[in-house]
Design brief:
Two copies of one chain form a homodimer.
Chain A (H helix, E strand, L loop, with lengths): L1 H17 L8 E3 L6 E3 L10 H13 L14 E4 L12 H16 L9 H5 L3 H20 L4 H14 L1 E2 L4 E2 L6 H12 L3 E9 H12 L6 E11 L4 E10 L5 H9 L6 E5 L6 H8 L6 E6 L15 H9 L2 E4 H4 L8
Parallel strand pairs in A: 3-6, 3-9, 6-7, 9-10, 10-11
Antiparallel strand pairs in A: 1-2, 4-5, 7-8
Helix pairs in contact in A: 3-5, 6-8
Keywords (chains A, B): Hydrolase
GO molecular function (chains A, B): hydrolase activity
Protein name (chains A, B): HAD family hydrolase
Chain lengths: ~325, ~325
């Protein structure tokens, strides 16, 4: 009797030790009467077609012996970050760039006379409105390069310690979408490996990916600058040239380089047409796949913004991708902590 | 009683389901009398200083509360492939390139008149001896690009199905080093994430990484060609230009891009001085780290070859890296299956 107890405890502690990063299962067994207890894996999603479609897909592809079964090593799920896992009005990347400008100008005041620093210091929005993506990339290059990786990482960590989200005055961590955190956990508890595939720079997202999303650094694919190994410093140096721009058609390229196979589950958002190529690429998988697109139509709880040409929603309709109607499908939007 | 049995079985099956890729532990508990049974995690390593140093390191950094403890997310181990995990006389990559030449010439016979195809068809070794690394890269570029990723993957899989290793006439799988397979398992069972960081092209190694080494595709870092997303084909196309050459100083760069942090455990080999930068980079980790270098000094069971300037062994001596004396430290060299 006592041996059996020890055996159970040994198994249990071994299980807890080996799998402490695993999430809860949807069906758990009550040890008292061996009955199955079903737990809603997506409590912040309203019941409806979309929620049932997600669950039906996961159940179908994890059912051994089913023709739709996908072996675990091919259960790859990719999520965009800005506008998909957290809010993007404004981009956190932009907040970080402004923070870097502040720090760089404090250290070297003459920078305040030089673009793009000048525009930030003088709060000249028109510089970035006129300049578009190009001006933003210029700002990011000026503030994100010229250091070693170690120095850059320290600077990103310092930023996230106190960063507040404009307009909402809450810590950046609280602009994560609660329903998406549940979806990530649900997928992982069903053997999926979850990746972030972001247009943002890879190190900025890596600094918070484990803490914010339970996603390890090496499962983040993003925009990167050129690196060079400096033998004397024994460090990787960031150079002021773009290596890979991981948006739009860049996403399948980043996925191939970092992951080496097409995702079976891909999730992006409308707003900047950044995820169409990734969702389409995922649909080319030889296994049954699932595409999901966040529609930002909730001006009260989040933001409401649409692409002028509706490219993402049109692609979704044409290719039968699933669309998250934020207003209707999400019981709550942001995470509490 | 019966409930307790069901409970045990439920826990056990849940554990097996959740952790089926985990390796055996070094200390297991005998359920009959709760005694600890110690199993040698490295049976193909001869007892001696090196084996005890490896085990002492792993025990020290996994001991909670110890000043040397490393959190799991930072237990990153990187292994070179050619000459470190399997034999490199010749490179498997070269065999694959020859196989591709054969297939390409079969499809288009006029290629046999063109270099580097001509040299392969005519078995003109001097072309590659004279041309060195440059000629090899030229051959690899000519045989590894111009297809989609999907087509290339099929071709790699076809090659590995029947590939035999020259001189030994055994399947390529059997040129893996048995002691290293045990080391990979041992590290993983202690919470390490294991990566391959190879000078070889990333997709060739990814084709066998899971089956040969238990390492998933996304944990392979290697040399890559430029990719382009082809919207019409909905596929990633390989272009005839190098994207990243993952050898020597390229290794820390590849590690930063794919993994995002310095390894704490790094293993390479002498022979081409390809791993010095990776081992040095790993030693710059803020956590206690371990560097390991295979010395190919076993002309009877494997091959014996040394660098002319002894650069790798000199670096090992200078930086106190651990050297595997193949003749002395390995009880057996190759895997049986």
């Amino acid at each position: 009797m006592i041996y059996r107890k020890i055996y159970v405890l040994t198994l249990l502690s071994f299980f807890l030790f080996s799998c402490k990063n695993k999430s809860e299962e949807t069906t758990i067994v009550n040890p008292k009467d061996n009955s199955a207890v079903t737990v809603d894996p997506l409590p912040s999603w309203n019941d409806g077609t979309l929620k049932s479609d997600i669950i039906a897909y996961v159940e179908k592809i994890t059912k051994k012996g089913s023709p739709d079964f996908i072996p675990e090593e091919h259960r790859i799920a990719t999520f965009d970050n800005d506008g998909t896992l957290w809010a993007e009005k404004p981009y956190v990347q932009e907040l970080f760039a402004f923070y870097r400008v502040k720090k760089m100008v404090e250290a070297k005041p003459e920078l305040a006379q030089k673009q793009p620093f000048k525009a930030v210091v003088e709060k000249d929005k028109s510089f970035f409105e006129k300049g578009g993506d190009k001006a933003l990339i210029e700002l990011v290059a000026a503030t994100h390069t010229g250091t070693t990786e170690d120095e850059f990482e320290t600077s990103v960590n310092d930023f996230f310690k106190d960063a507040k989200y404009p307009g909402k005055n809450i810590p950046v961590k609280q602009i994560r979408y609660q329903p998406q955190l549940e979806l990530l956990n649900y997928l992982r508890s069903n053997g999926f490996k979850t990746f972030i595939v972001t247009g943002g720079t890879i190190e900025v997202v890596r600094a918070i990916s484990e803490d914010f999303y339970g996603i390890p650094k090496e499962q983040v694919v993003g925009t990167s600058f050129k690196y060079k190994y400096d033998d004397e410093k024994n460090a990787v140096q960031r150079e002021a040239a773009l290596n890979h721009y991981n948006d739009k058609e860049g996403k399948p390229v980043g996925i191939q380089l970092h992951i080496g196979q097409r995702p079976v589950f891909a999730c992006g958002n409308e707003g900047g047409a950044g995820d169409i190529a990734m969702l389409k690429y995922s649909q080319g998988n030889k296994y049954p796949s699932f595409q999901l697109l966040v529609n930002h139509n909730d001006s009260i709880r989040e933001y409401s913004y649409q692409e002028k040409d509706n490219a993402s929603l049109n692609a979704a309709a044409k290719n039968k991708w699933h669309v998250i109607d934020m207003k209707k499908d999400w019981k709550k939007v942001f995470s509490d902590n």
